[in-house]
Design brief:
- This protein has 4 domains: about 140 residues, no CATH class; about 30 residues; about 180 residues, Serine Threonine Protein Phosphatase 5, Tetratricopeptide repeat, CATH 1.25.40.480; about 70 residues, no CATH class.
- The chain has about 525 residues and is mainly alpha-helical.
- It has a two-stranded antiparallel sheet.
- The radius of gyration is 29 Å and the shape is flat.
Length: about 525
C-alpha cells in the first residue's frame, strides 16, 4: 500500500493521526497526545471525518482479483492494532455508531492477529455495555476445554489430578487443627464485649455443644494467652518458610542473590551518590570512567533471573534481598540496572519489586522525599506506569496516609510520568478512598492535566464532591479544586451535575465562595 497516496484521502489533522498510528509500539500513545493537543487548540475538533475516511470503500487487488474493501483494511497489522488501542482510550467521547461501524469494517478483513481480534470484541462489548459471549477465539476456547478435561480426568495421559493427590491428603490430616486455629484467631485479648460475643459464636461452631465441654470464664484467659503464643509461633514459622523456600530455588537463582545484594550494599553509598550527582550534570560518561562497567554488567546479568521467576520465587527473592530495608542511596543505581533489563519485567514481577522496594519507604515519609528516592520512583514509574499505579500509588491512597510528603511525590508522578489513561486509573481510585488535604492536592494535579472524563466518571466525581464538601467547608485546597472543576470542565456539567455542584457550594465558607457561585452561573445548560 502506498501510504502517500492513501494520506491524500485524509484532511490535514487526520494525517497527523495516521502518521502517529504508524509509529511502532508507541503509536496509540502518540496518537492520543496529538488528539489531546488538537482538542486543546480547537474544542470543537472531532474525529468523525477521520473515522468516516477509514470506512470508505477502496478498490484493491486480492489473490489476482479486483475487490472492494474498507480503506482501514488496507493498512498494516501494526496500524490496526494501534488504532484499536487508541480507540480504547478515547471511545467514551466518540459517537458510538461511528466507532461500531469502523469495527464492522475491520471484521470484514481476515485478521491473523488474534490480539487485534480480541481488542475488537472487547471494544464492542465496552461500547454496547454488554458482557455476553466471550472474546476468546474458537481455537483458544477448544484448547481451554481440552485442558479442563485433562484436569477433570485423573486417568488421562499426564494425570493432572495426581499433582493434587498429596495436597488433598495433607488437607484431610490438618482439617481439625486448622479449624481450631481459626477459632483462636478470631479472639482478641483487648476486644470489647461485642467482639467477645462474636468469638463465643465462633467457639460454638467448632466445639461440642455439651455443657461440660464448653469454655468457662476461667479458661478463656488461658486460651487468649495460648493464642498470643500461637501468633508468635506463626511469625517464626513464616520466617522458616521463607528460608525453606530459598533452599528450593534453582542454583543459578541462589547464585544471583549475593551479586544483587551488592547493588543494595551500604558500602556502595558513595558510588551511588556519585551516580546521582554526575547524572544531574549530564556527566554519565565520566561516571563510567570513574567506575568501570564490569560491576554494572554483572549486576544486570544477575537481575535477569527475575525473568525466570514465578510469583512465589519473586516474593522469596525480594524478601531475601531485603529490598524494603535497602538504603535510599542505593536505589538509583539499583533501578538503573533494572531499567537495563531487556525484555521488560512482567506486570506481576514489576508489581512485586516496586512494592518491596518503594512502598514502605513512601508510606514512612514525614518530610519531602530525598533526591535518591524521587529519582528511583520516577524512573520506575516512567518505564512501568501501570504496575506503579497498582503497586504504589493505589496502596498509598487506600491506606489513608497521604501526608504532604506523599502528596508531593504523587503529584510529581501524575504530572511528569503518567500518560492520560494511567491518570484516569488514579482518578478512579481516588473516587473510592477517604479524602484528606493530601488527596486534594493529587486531585488538583489530575484536574490540571485535563483528564478525558466520561459522563459516568464526572457524575461520580460530583457526587463525591457533594458528600465531602461538609468536611472541607473551610479548606482552601477544596475551594480551589472546585474552581478548577467549574472553569476547566464546563462542558461536562449537565443539569444533574449542576444541581449537585450547587448543593456542594452551599457548604463552602471560604472567601472564594462568591467566585465559585459566579463560575457556576456562567455555565450554560
Amino acid at each position: 500500500m502506498d501510504l502517500k497516496a492513501v494520506l491524500q484521502r485524509f484532511d490535514g489533522r487526520s494525517r497527523l493521526l495516521v502518521h502517529a498510528l504508524h509509529s511502532g509500539a508507541a503509536g496509540a500513545s502518540n496518537a492520543q497526545t496529538i488528539f489531546n493537543k488538537q482538542r486543546r487548540s480547537d474544542p470543537d475538533f472531532t474525529l468523525i471525518p477521520f473515522l468516516e475516511t477509514l470506512c470508505q470503500q477502496e478498490a484493491c487487488v486480492s489473490e489476482d482479483a479486483l475487490v472492494v474493501k474498507p480503506l482501514v483494511c488496507l493498512f498494516s497489522e501494526g496500524f490496526k492494532r494501534n488504532l484499536l488501542c487508541f480507540l480504547h482510550l478515547i471511545h467514551p467521547g466518540l459517537p458510538k455508531d461511528r466507532v461500531l461501524h469502523l469495527l464492522e469494517c475491520l471484521t470484514q478483513d481476515d485478521m491473523e492477529n488474534q490480539w487485534a481480534c480480541a481488542l475488537i470484541k472487547q471494544l464492542q462489548r465496552d461500547i454496547e455495555g454488554t458482557r455476553k459471549g466471550t472474546i476468546l477465539t474458537s481455537n483458544c476456547t477448544g484448547k481451554l476445554k481440552s485442558l479442563c478435561e485433562r484436569f477433570r480426568n485423573a486417568d488421562a495421559e499426564g494425570r493432572w489430578a495426581a499433582c493434587f493427590e498429596e495436597l488433598e491428603a495433607e488437607g484431610k490430616e490438618t482439617n481439625v487443627p486448622s479449624q481450631k486455629k481459626r477459632k483462636s484467631d478470631n479472639m482478641d485479648p483487648d476486644g470489647d464485649a461485642q467482639e467477645d460475643h462474636q468469638s463465643k459464636r465462633v467457639k460454638m461452631d467448632f466445639w461440642p455443644c455439651d455443657e461440660e465441654e464448653r469454655l468457662t470464664e476461667e479458661e478463656e484467659p488461658k486460651m487468649r494467652t495460648s493464642q498470643l503464643e500461637q501468633s508468635d509461633a506463626s511469625v517464626s514459622q513464616a520466617r522458616s518458610d521463607v528460608l525453606g523456600s530459598l533452599k528450593n530455588l534453582p542454583d543459578h537463582m541462589k547464585a544471583a542473590v549475593p551479586v544483587i545484594k551488592e547493588l543494595l550494599d551500604t558500602e556502595s553509598a558513595v558510588r551511588n551518590l556519585c551516580f546521582i550527582i554526575l547524572l544531574s550534570f549530564h556527566l554519565y560518561n565520566f561516571y563510567i570512567f570513574l567506575f568501570p562497567s564490569q560491576w554494572d554488567e554483572s549486576s544486570v546479568s544477575a537481575l535477569k533471573v527475575l525473568h525466570e521467576c514465578d510469583p512465589n520465587e519473586v516474593e522469596v527473592l525480594c524478601s531475601m534481598l531485603g529490598l524494603s530495608e535497602s538504603s535510599e542511596q542505593s536505589l538509583p543505581q539499583f533501578c538503573s540496572c533494572l531499567l537495563e533489563l531487556s525484555p521488560d519485567l512482567s506486570h506481576s514481577t514489576a508489581c512485586a519489586v516496586i512494592t518491596h522496594l518503594l512502598l514502605a519507604k513512601i508510606l514512612a515519609l514525614t518530610e519531602p522525599a530525598s533526591r535518591c528516592l524521587v529519582t528511583a520512583v520516577m524512573s520506575l514509574c516512567t518505564r512501568y506506569p501501570r504496575p506503579t499505579c497498582q503497586a504504589l500509588i493505589e496502596p498509598v491512597l487506600q491506606k489513608g496516609q497521604t501526608g504532604s510528603a506523599q502528596a508531593e511525590l504523587l503529584c510529581r508522578l501524575v504530572v511528569d510520568c503518567l500518560e492520560p489513561h494511567h491518570r484516569l486509573l488514579v482518578f478512579r481510585t481516588i473516587l473510592g478512598v477517604s479524602w484528606d488535604e493530601g488527596v486534594l492536592s493529587v486531585i488538583h494535579a489530575l484536574l490540571d492535566s485535563k483528564l478525558e472524563l466520561s459522563e459516568e466518571d464526572f457524575s461520580l466525581f460530583t457526587n463525591q464532591l457533594c458528600s465531602q464538601s461538609p468536611h472541607f467547608s473551610k479548606s482552601m485546597k477544596f475551594a480551589k479544586m472546585l474552581l478548577s472543576v467549574l472553569t476547566k470542565y464546563q462542558s461536562h456539567v449537565n443539569p444533574a451535575c449542576h444541581h449537585t455542584l450547587s448543593s456542594c457550594l452551599s457548604f463552602n465558607e471560604t472567601f472564594l465562595k462568591k467566585s465559585l457561585q459566579a463560575a457556576l452561573k456562567r455555565i450554560s445548560l
